[in-house]
Amino acid sequence: MQSLLSPPLKALMRSPHLRLLVPRAAPSTQCGCSCGIRSTLRPGQYSTISEVALQSGRGTVSLPSKAAERVVGRWLLVCSGTVAGAVILGGVTRLTESGLSMVDWHLVKEMKPPTSQKEWEAEFQKYQQFPEFKILNHDMTLAEFKFIWYMEYSHRMWGRLVGLAYILPAAYFWRKGWLSRNMKGRVLALCGLVCFQGLLGWYMVKSGLEEKPDSHDIPRVSQYRLAAHLGSALVLYCASLWTSLSLLLPPHKLPETRQLLRLRRFAHGTAGLVFLTALSGAFVAGLDAGLVYNSFPKMGESWIPEDLFTFSPILKNVFENPTMVQFDHRILGITSVTAITALYLLSWRIPLPRRTKMAAVTLLALAYTQV
């Protein structure tokens, strides 16, 4: 982060707006007689806005200037990268079935992992009291437990790193006066969403630790809470990235033609469709619905499976029937790729800036890579 923030800080320090707190003499004024009288400023008076800001801020620089905006923009760009890393690490944790290995949550206490054999055995004994060990991993060894425990531990510690990456620099920039009034509201919202994300993660894990006497199914977290956890992470990532780019990249002034307005609305709709597809993927993961049918484009021997509406009421199938959940995810995925392709074709029919066209090409390439 130091390498990212250093050039803008140097540019800010060389700015001509930063001047020493030295009282400046006022220009000569003429009185009624013919003598010239030079009036000087009294102690505590300063002749520029930046000097007043320095004095009133007790030594801080209250400048939502271009240099400060670049610093804040690069900080939020780094933050969005840490959120993307958390999502990826959370996916790995899910694939390795490690999410239920840590059966309690402490903000500070759990930051220290077990170090001795006695501590590891005590941690393993706690895990043995919960459904995942009793039903699924009853023959697990201590060495195998250490692997899944460290996977979940790394995900939780990365989450704490994300929180610090947001909160500490935000407090620093706020004190320095480098955040405009509008940016203060955005930064507060982002920091609040980070804290909410951490609490939601533990709320999700708790759903997989609950005893269900009437069920002998594999213990898993609630697909509803998993989708909420992923969805809030995506909102945090997109909001951070959007705010960062709005500070780092100057906006293009384009004529508001009918084609441009149509493209903008279609882009917003496509973004919402992609977000909905990602949430449906969380339901697939939460129910292990991807294991029901493993053929494509057909599901088994048919295009539309016969067991789509086995649950009652019918709406329950959309969220709890693994067959319907996988079917919906496939349809949403195909629709998303189709919409992105159409967005790409529309963008090339309109005279757009080079970076906008590059974004459309990159989006198209990532969409087909995802498929």
TrEMBL record:
Q: Which InterPro entries match?
A: COX15/CtaA_fam, HemeA_Synthase_type2, Peptidase_S1_PA
Gene Ontology BP, a term = heme A biosynthetic process
What membrane topology does the annotation report for this chain?
Answer: Multi-pass membrane protein
What's in the GO CC field?
mitochondrial inner membrane
UniProt key word Metal-binding: yes
Locations listed in the record: Membrane
Q: Which UniProt keywords apply?
A: Heme biosynthesis, Iron, Membrane, Metal-binding, Oxidoreductase, Transmembrane, Transmembrane helix
What reactions does this protein catalyze?
A: Fe(II)-heme o + 2 A + H2O = Fe(II)-heme a + 2 AH2
Molecular function via GO: heme A synthase activity; metal ion binding; oxidoreductase activity, acting on NAD(P)H, heme protein as acceptor
Q: Which cofactor does it need?
A: heme b
Pathway membership of this protein?
Porphyrin-containing compound metabolism; heme A biosynthesis; heme A from heme O: step 1/1
Q: Which residues cross the membrane?
A: 75-95, 157-175, 187-205, 225-249, 270-293, 331-348
This chain belongs to which protein, by name? Answer: Cytochrome c oxidase assembly protein COX15 homolog
